[in-house]
Fold this protein.
Amino acid sequence: MCGRFVSAASLEQIAAHFDTPLPGFDAPRSYNVAPTADIVAVVANDNARQIETFRWGLVPAWSKDPTKGPPLFNARSETASTKNTFRSAFVRRRCIVPADGFYEWPKAPKGTSPDERPLPHYITRTDGGMLAMAGLWERWWPPEDAPDSSGSVSERRVLHSATVLTTAANDFMVPIHDRMPVLLERSAWDAWLDPANDGIDMLSAMCAPAAEGILRSHQVGRVLGNVRNSDASLIEPADPTEAAPDRLF
C-alpha cells in the first residue's frame, strides 16, 4: 500500500519533469501527504499533458455522499479493471501522481506496542529522480448538479478525486512491505495517460512491480505518524538509537 508520500518539488519542477505547461494555480508542498489531502496529478486532455489538483481518496461518481466510507487512497491494480468502484476510471481516467518519494511501515506482530514497532522507511529513486505513481481519477457531483440531458455538468461543486494504484512488492520492497505503488517509467507515460487507450490487457501489464535496482530506502523517525508534522526533517535518517539492530534492512 502507499498511505503517505512526499510532494516537495515545486510546480515548476513537476511541469518540467513531465513536460506540461505550468498550471495557473499554486499547490501546497508537503513532506507528509496523507489521505484526503489535496494533491497534484498529471492527466492528458486533448492529447496534451497538464497538471490538475485532486483530493487524495477516490470518490466514485455513483457515490451518494463523498464523506461516507473510508478514503479510497489506494486501489489494487490486479482488480481495478473489474471492480465497480474503479472500473470506469481504469478505462478512461488515468493519471500520474508525482512524488519525491513514499513512506512505508513494515508490518509488526499483533500486540506490538507503538514504541516497539519497526521504524517507517522512506523510499526514493536511486537516481534521485521523481517517482511517477500510476493513479486513477474520478469526478463526483451532488445529485442536484448531475449532468443534464445534453451531458453538460455544472462545475460549481464538482469534486475531483484520485487514488494511487498498488501492485505486488518487488524483491527490494519485500522486506519492508508486500505491496508497493505502481511506478511508471517515462516510456509508459503516454500510453498510460491516453484516455483513448482502453486496452485492458496492456494497461494491466503496465501495473507490474518496479524493476530491481531503481529504488533505495532508509529508516525515518516515528514522528512521521503525526500528519501535523510535514517539514523536511521527516525524511532525515532515523537516530540509530530509535531502532534495534535486527530491525535495520
